Amino acid sequence: MGIAQALIREPAVLLLDEPLSALDLNYQFHVMDLLRRETRRRGMVTVIVLHDLNVALRHTDRVLMLKAGKLLANGGRTK
């Protein structure tokens, strides 16, 4: 519900902190596919905090990996 409310406001940048934490794997994929489709259609930049690297790599264009506040990696899916 919170994601839908954020999309309705159409911000230039959408910030999401663990939006999938309460969902099972099947719903995680559906939500990420919906987010990607809708934010692209609306021309929005989306920053998502995730702890599941597999989900991040499958559903994002760019991944930043942090540990203890330090940047470990920065790149697209192929890096």
Q: What is the domain tally?
A: 1
Distance between the termini: 33 Å
What is the helix/strand order? HEHEHEE
CATH superfamily: P-loop containing nucleotide triphosphate hydrolases
Task: Figure out the total of helices.
Answer: 3
Write the CATH fold name: Rossmann fold
Secondary-structure-based class equals: alpha+beta
Shape: globular
**Biggest β-sheet description:** 2 strands, parallel
GO molecular function, one term: ATP binding
EC number: 3.6.3.-
Membrane topology: Peripheral membrane protein
GO biological process, one term: monoatomic ion transport
What does this protein structure show overall?
There is one protein chain. By secondary structure, the chain is of the alpha+beta class. It has a single domain, classed as P-loop containing nucleotide triphosphate hydrolases (Rossmann fold). It is built from three helices and four strands. The chain has helices at residues 2-9, 25-42, 53-59; strands spanning 13-17, 45-49, 62-67, 70-76. The chain has a two-stranded parallel sheet with strand order 1-2. A hairpin with a 2-residue loop joins strand 3 and strand 4 (70-76). The longest helix has 18 residues, at 25-42. It is globular, with a radius of gyration of 13 Å. Its EC number is 3.6.3.-. It comes from Chromobacterium violaceum. InterPro entries: P-loop_NTPase (IPR027417), Siderophore_ABC-ATPase (IPR051535). Its main location: membrane. GO terms for molecular function: ATP binding; hydrolase activity.
